[in-house]
Design a protein that fits this description.
Layout (H helix, E strand, L loop, with lengths): L1 H9 L18 H8 L6 E7 L6 H4 L10 E6 L6 H8 L4 E4 L5 H11 L4 E4 L11 H9 L4 E5 L6 E2 L4 H18 L11 E4 L16 H11 L4 E5 L1 E2 L11 H17 L31 H17 L8 H12 L3 E7 L5 E8 L2 E3 L3 H10 L1 H8 L3 E3 L20 E8 L5 E8 L7 H7 L7
Parallel strand pairs: 1-2, 1-4, 2-3, 5-8, 6-9
Antiparallel strand pairs: 4-7, 5-7, 10-11, 10-15, 11-12, 13-14, 14-15
Helix pairs in contact: 7-9, 8-9, 10-11, 12-13
Length: 448
């Protein structure tokens, strides 16, 4: 609990690489990530609650705090100790007391209270997995205006949807696709995120109930915003009884669909915003691209690597790209990336020497884990710095490398899906990796 609180307090401070504490000295993982991600948009997470005191301890600790700047709890007159539990677990949480009934009223109150550039709504009952938040943020930073979770996209699922509700949701989804020209796989799912600028053209202040999610999505589509879906898994409610009423709330959703189809766009074509909005990756670092310094380019590359690793994407097709980006960011000549499953077995491996990908036999990989630095990192869950590969007993010489002293680093990488990666990078001469390099790489490292 203290770990979560300390990390949340750090979010209020401007990250600075030169002042960060080294991972090797016991610093938290998130402090390193904040240094790399200091230019990302400000993110606000909104959590509507009504008597969720038992559920919050099972949800709040799993918020990916390194991706979040502000957590807002909007309480709808709970009769248990929901607010007290939230403040105990997360003292920096912002609490908004909403007197009006309904999920829509709570969400609108959260929108008004949020200060972030990106707003994300997460249910408090455990049905939304907060660990999926990086996936939503990533989609927004890649160009979407609004991102909605889908339980029926590839890789998604649900354990909390009776047949009658699934049938109704399918009917509503197909109807909306036909009437609005969308291509969605899910409609009545409230896990969503969007840039604040969406509220300039999408007004849902007139929608107090569960139908607010449908109204939000349809009005965004009508205003020609870029709405995309990401796979999301809906779990069962941990404690308590859900507030959704299938027939009454389904009727309200149907009325919203009909009403929105008959409405015209709020924005005249001549007044529609022209241009891209959201993140400007290059301009964050310098007024013009030609004055970006080498360290800042390295930060940009590591930032990209971190997003790929933590956003939950499959690495089967991305391993070579991740490894090449790592080599480029750290000016290394060769390296390897080993992916291990939750049982510690090697699931995949990629090795690069210069510009060429090197094939690795099962025996080679086994030797690396038994005798090499990768195995040492796996057993100790620490970064390894090797000043001279000819003198350090942790280094296992590789058959394709010349017999000359080199320097190397190895990093344990925490992946989003409970797997572990071990990234090893090599430079051509001894004593070329420094503690400053470790401070950069600790942003990718898992906590000890």
């Amino acid at each position: 609990m203290e770990h979560l609180i300390n990390i949340q307090n750090q979010l209020a401070q401007k990250a600075n690489l030169s002042k960060s504490t080294s991972f090797l000295d016991g610093a938290t993982l998130e402090s390193g990530i904040l240094n790399i991600y200091r230019q990302r948009p400000r993110v606000s997470v909104i959590i509507p609650t009504l008597n969720e005191a038992k559920n919050l301890p099972l949800v709040l600790p799993y918020l990916p705090i390194a991706w979040i700047d502000e957590v807002i709890l909007v309480d709808g007159r709970s009769t248990d100790n929901t607010v007290e539990v939230a403040r105990t677990m997360l003292p920096t949480i912002k609490v908004v007391m909403e007197q009006k009934k309904g999920k829509g009223a709570a969400m609108n109150a959260g929108y008004r209270a949020a200060t972030g550039e990106i707003l994300i709504v997460v249910d408090a009952d455990g049905s939304n997995d907060p660990r999926e938040i990086p996936r939503f943020v990533q989609a927004l930073m890649m160009g979407a205006d609004m991102v909605k979770g889908s339980r029926f996209a590839h890789g998604a699922g649900t354990t909390d949807m009776p047949f009658i509700r699934q049938l109704g949701n399918s009917f509503f989804t197909i109807t909306c696709n036909l009437l609005f020209g969308t291509h969605w796989t899910d409609l009545c799912y409230g896990y969503h995120a969007f840039w604040r600028h969406c509220l300039e053209v999408v007004d849902v202040s007139d929608t107090p109930g569960f139908e607010i999610d449908t109204a939000l999505y349809l009005r965004a589509a009508r205003e020609q915003l870029h709405v995309t879906e990401v796979p999301s898994f809906e779990g069962y409610r941990f404690f308590g009884v859900g507030k959704l009423q299938t027939i009454p709330d389904g009727w309200r959703v149907l009325k919203i669909i009909i009403r929105e189809r008959l409405k015209k766009s709020r924005t005249a074509e001549s007044n529609r915003y022209l241009g891209f909005r959201g993140l400007q990756p290059v301009l964050e670092y310098a007024a013009t691209p030609n004055v970006i310094s080498a360290p800042e380019v390295n930060l940009q590359l590591l930032r990209t690597i971190g997003m790929i690793l933590s956003a939950g994407y499959s690495l089967n097709e991305l391993m070579t790209q991740v490894l090449h980006l790592s080599l480029q960011a750290m000016n290394a000549v060769s390296g390897s990336l080993l992916i291990l499953d939750e049982n510690g077995q090697v699931a995949d491996v990629c090795m690069v020497y210069g510009d060429k990908k090197v094939s690795a036999s099962e025996k080679n990989v086994s030797e690396l884990l038994d005798q090499g630095v990768a195995g040492w990192v796996l057993r100790n869950r620490k970064l390894a710095l090797i000043a001279n590969t000819n003198e350090d007993p942790r280094w296992l010489p590789r058959t394709w490398e010349q017999d000359m002293p080199r320097s190397a680093v190895a990093v344990p990488v925490a992946l989003n899906d409970c797997r572990l990666g071990i990234l090893t990078l090599v430079r051509s001469q001894e004593n070329q990796f420094t503690t400053d390099d470790l401070k950069l790489l600790e942003s990718l490292a898992m906590p000890a």
